[in-house]
Amino acid sequence: MSACTLYPAIDVRDGRVVRLLQGDYEQETRYDGTPLAIAERYAQAGADWLHLVDLDAARAGGYTLGPLLASIKAATSLRVQTGGGVRSEQEVESILTAGAERVVIGSMAVRETGQVLAWIRRFGAERITIALDVRQDVDGIWTLPVAGWTQDSGIRFEPLVQTFAEAGVRHLLCTDIARDGMLVGPSIALYRQLSAWAPDMDIQASGGIRGVDDIQAAAAAGCRGAVLGKALLEGRFTLEQALCGAVAC
What is the active site of this protein (predicted)? Predict the structure, then answer.
């Protein structure tokens, strides 16, 4: 098992750090501390990366966290991957200019795949993270909701992953919506399948992680990264414990 890069996550809505339950905007938990203060705390604990999400923009479009991103970059040495509602090449360029190492593209990657592949050709595969958020229907088929998980795209999951793999996409973040915020463990079978479909991609596990054992299980399933959200914010484990476990120290 190789080392797993950890991405402590900060989801921002109305300027506050929040978590949604299974992507439901009506089921929000707010956490103490400003987004900048929490980012600084993660940096002090040894994080190399931060996963920053604009929840307002994820539903309405129009990324709004540029000033916060610039403040985080000025105050810490964190590398940041960030997104939420990114819908244009100009927004990608603006976010990268503000200091992000990678821009996370979600709904557009599903709805306008060709356009997003053009962005990757322009900015490079290291500067874009594709985020595919999936939900399993009653027949066991993985579907791809978009617009902050509020609409079903009608796009099939496996062919889309294969399209990205063939195009040379490097970073793929995949969230099982049913597990997001539920603290029930990550979707290991899903990540094994993704690793089989796209063995050269750096897959990031997201949703359900509740402890160091889950990070290690995701890495064993082929993930090279893990996004840490609710469990970390609620102190179920420390970032120091997670970093140590991720490299099997």
Answer: 11 (proton acceptor), 133 (proton donor)
